[in-house]
């Protein structure tokens, strides 16, 4: 990453983070109103598919869609995690609270991201966990906990 891109990337990821609880609240509400969190998840994925398809058509990326033996098989499993997230949050957020659900999602993301970066898993850039990074992650987890704590 070049330092000139960092502010733009940070803003885009901040907006993405803002969208995750909104997604949880909207899809949880849709699932409750439909009486089926799975139906709501199907609608969400249908809308997402249309948006991704439109983007791929507009950029000429459709020709890049392929299953290939030169791409490690595990790279095709990202959709499993998205589906698990959407279905789980659609079921759980209306009962557990959006904030509580997202609290645990955030803690899981912090742990997973640190491990992926530390070991450079899946071709990610390596950012080892040193004492300073560990302390920062621990403070983030504590901050998320304190922000969600009630009573």
Question: Would you kindly provide a written description of the structure presented here, covering whatever features stand out?
Answer:
- The protein folds into 2 domains: 1-96, no CATH class; 97-151.
- Helices cover 74% and strands 0% of the residues.
- The chain has helices spanning 6-34, 37-59, 78-96, 98-119, 131-148.
- The mean pLDDT is 92.
- The radius of gyration is 18 Å and the shape is globular.
- The chain contains 5 helices and no strands.
- α2 (37-59) packs across α3, α3 (78-96) packs antiparallel against α4 (98-119) and α4 packs antiparallel against α5 (131-148).
- 11% of the residues are buried.
- The chain is mainly α and 151 residues long.
Give a brief rundown of this model.
With 151 residues, the protein is an all-alpha fold. It is built from 5 helices and no strands. Helix 1 packs across helix 3 and helix 4 (98-119) packs antiparallel against helix 5.
| Total E-strand runs | 0
Largest sheet: none
What's the helix count?
5
> What class, by secondary structure content?
mainly alpha
**Measured on Cα atoms, how large is the radius of gyration?**
18 Å
Terminus-to-terminus distance: 42 Å
Tally of discrete structural domains: 2
- SSE string, helices as H and strands as E: HHHHH
Strand content: under 5%
List the helices and strands and how they pair.
Blueprint: H1 6-34, H2 37-59, H3 78-96, H4 98-119, H5 131-148
Helix pairs in contact: 1-2, 1-3, 2-3, 3-4, 4-5
């Amino acid at each position: 990453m070049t330092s000139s891109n960092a502010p733009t990337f940070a803003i885009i990821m901040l907006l993405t983070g803002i969208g995750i609880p909104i997604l949880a609240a909207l899809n949880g509400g849709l699932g409750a109103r439909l009486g089926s969190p799975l139906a709501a998840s199907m609608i969400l994925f249908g809308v997402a598919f249309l948006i991704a398809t439109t983007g791929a058509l507009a950029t000429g990326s459709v020709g890049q869609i392929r299953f290939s033996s030169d791409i490690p098989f595990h790279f095709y499993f990202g959709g499993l995690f998205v589906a698990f997230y959407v279905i789980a949050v659609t079921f759980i957020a209306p009962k557990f609270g959006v904030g509580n659900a997202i609290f645990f999602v955030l803690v899981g993301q912090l742990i997973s991201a640190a491990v992926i970066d530390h070991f450079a898993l899946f071709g990610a850039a390596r950012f080892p966990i040193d004492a300073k990074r560990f302390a920062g992650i621990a403070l983030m987890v504590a901050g998320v906990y304190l922000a969600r704590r009630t009573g």
